[in-house]
Amino acid sequence: KPSFGASKRLVSGSELASIALSLSAFCSNAHAAERYTFELVGAPSDLQARLLEISNLAQEKGALVTSAAISRAGQRDASAIENALRASGYYKATASLEIVSSEDAEKLAVTINAEPGEKFRITEHLFVYLDSSENERPTTPEMMALELNENTDGTSLAANQRQAVEGLWGSGYPEARPVGRRVELLPGDAEARAIYELESGPRANLGP
Length: 208
Hints:
3-stranded mixed β-sheet; alpha/beta
């Protein structure tokens, strides 16, 4: 006789494993939410959301069910947030972890205190060559009529270096390429020098 009941399908071992992992992650996150509260204090408002995205505690990632695990994750988060602030131009930024617990409280109160300080700006640009040449090569933007960005984030510095390389191409160095870059803090009010490491390669002979 034909059967009109609902069709049945056996669940494979890999599907069972995937379900088990999902349930485990769900339970871990649920336990994490029960174990602590989290707050990021002092971060610049325009970076707050991005900094929370890199925090395992804020995202409740991992098996954060013990005080020791929460403390370790908090230390890693503080370090990651401090590095992210410095990469965004707050070169003297610090981030510290604070955990408050009491016998009466059901949860740990976890706070990362960010102290970004002033945001630096690039007031000097310098081109440094790592290869040798008999020709005098430009060492500043002015020597190639370049207008470089004074922002200190990595994207802006990379764009500046790309302009320098393109300026060298236009000055007769078709093999010029970027090598590295770094920033040096200058005395004064949140000012810094960007140093762009380049290789110019040989100068092209455009003569007959």
